Amino acid sequence: MLYYFVDLRKEQGEKTMNIKEKISNLIFPNIGESIADLEKRFPKRNLVEGAIVTRFAPSPTGFLHTGSLFTSLISQRFAVQTNGVFFLRIEDTDQKREIKGSGDKVLEQLEIFGVTPDESYSKGGKYGPYIQSKRKSIYHTVIKEMLIKGLAYPCFCNHDELSDIRKYQEENKLLPGYYKEFAKCRKLTDEEVLSKIERGDSYVIRFT
User: Fold this and answer.
1) How far apart are CA 50 and CA 171, in angstroms?
2) How would CATH label the architecture of 43-126?
3) CB-CB neighbours of 167 under 10 Å
4) Which CA distances in Å does 122 have to 42, 60, 184?
5) Most exposed among 65, 138, 175, 196, judged by the fewest C-beta atoms under 10 Å?
6) CATH topology for 2-38+138-207?
7) DSSP code per residue over 106-126
8) Is pTM beyond 0.85 here?
9) pLDDT tens across 72-85, in order?
């Protein structure tokens, strides 16, 4: 009898995992890689002990300004002093404000001050792409696996619902945010989530 009980729980666990996999496949139908695949594609850098890898991530929205120049100088200096790597990745996710060609201009302006990245979208490197919008499949791969493992979940709350939650929190002097009893969609069953996804309801992905 004990053996049957343990086996039944195992079957139920497999059923739950299959539903999570179906949900994740509906959300990310074109993602076939796993985190393990990514780790093979982007192995740990072979650097000396104490080496620091630094990043400068300008938005292509205009000319290089003083604050960004200072940040890039510090980043490069840390990498050079520790025999590490300094790379540049363009953060082009705010495409409404993007100015075409400004990414190239930033690289040109950095060179005037002697700041040359070891890796960038123009120079290349083994850990690209070095343009944020082209790295989408990497992030989707990780999020898909998080969904399967129950480390993330779809949230279907609309703007009005979120506004009501925030208003209640403010009125009662509570920490604003989507957490604990306010995280309504975290309480949905896998079957309910699957139904909403198949119905075409809008959602965002939240971490548990």
Assistant:
1) 49
2) 3-Layer(aba) Sandwich (3.40)
3) 11
4) 19, 14, 45
5) 175
6) Glutamyl-tRNA Synthetase; domain 3 (3.90.800)
7) HHHHHHHTT---SBBTTTB-T
8) no
9) 999 999 999 999 99
